[in-house]
Amino acid sequence: MEDQANNTTSSNPKPSETPVLNISGKVETTQKTPRTMGKKKADPPPPTVPETSKINPTTFPVIMGRILLKSNDPPEPVSKMNLSDFKQYLCLLCMDKPSKRKLVSHMFISNEKELDSDFLKVRKIYENRKDLKILEQVTVYTLCARSLFHRVQMKLTDVEWNKQRNIFETDRIGERDVWNVTSRLYDLENEETEKLFNYAKFLSATNS
Question: Annotated region Disordered: where (predicted)?
Fold first, then answer.
């Protein structure tokens, strides 16, 4: 009788185990889902990154302009890809106005490829001016020439600007007047570079 009872007990199925809740609150079942016969379903392709978000010689000036100018206006388009087109300069043609003891500076933006031709165009404007004497050409390399251009317009408040704010006059004091103006431009360019470093530090600190 005891053996028969043992046989009866072993033949009965075990009661089902109580379901266990996971941390999400859903019931986990012990039954495994059968595998589907056939080919394994391919993983979805990774999201594509828009071409405009990549950093290259074409997009770099746009990115710099957005950071430094806080603007989405892109620079003027170029006809073809050329690395020298994107090495930007803030340029000054410095002239003497002896009658009023003034130093006149014509400011414009250029790049390595067109630097000589741009200076030539500006020089031709003043070649026949008897009241002006051309002194020097000044070039300041910058990551974003538009941004530095606007910074000069805002920061040089002790000079006399024309209506277009691309030509300014300063009092002519001595032989180092051109050097003094150039030094101020480099100081302003250093401020632009500092803005980029601070922005990079901000992105690093915020894990952006």
Answer: 1-56
Is pLDDT of 138 > 70? yes
Check if the beta carbon of residue 86 is closer than 8 Å to that of residue 142. Answer: no
Q: Where are the domains of the chain?
A: 60-205
CA distance 137 to 134: 9
**102-111 and 20-21 strand pairing:** unpaired
Question: Degrees (nearest 5) of the Cα angle 205, 150, 69?
Answer: 35
Question: For residue 190, what are the contacts with CB-CB under 8 A and spacing of at least 6?
Answer: none
- Are 94 and 170 in contact by the 8 Å Cβ rule? The answer is no
Q: Model confidence at 202, in pLDDT bands (50, 70, 90)?
A: confident
- How many other CB atoms sit within 10 Å of the CB of residue 182? 18
| Cα gap 98→202, rounded to integer Å | 49
Q: Mean pLDDT check: name the lowest of 56-60, 109-113, 120-124, 138-142.
A: 56-60
Distance CA 18, CA 171 (A): 92
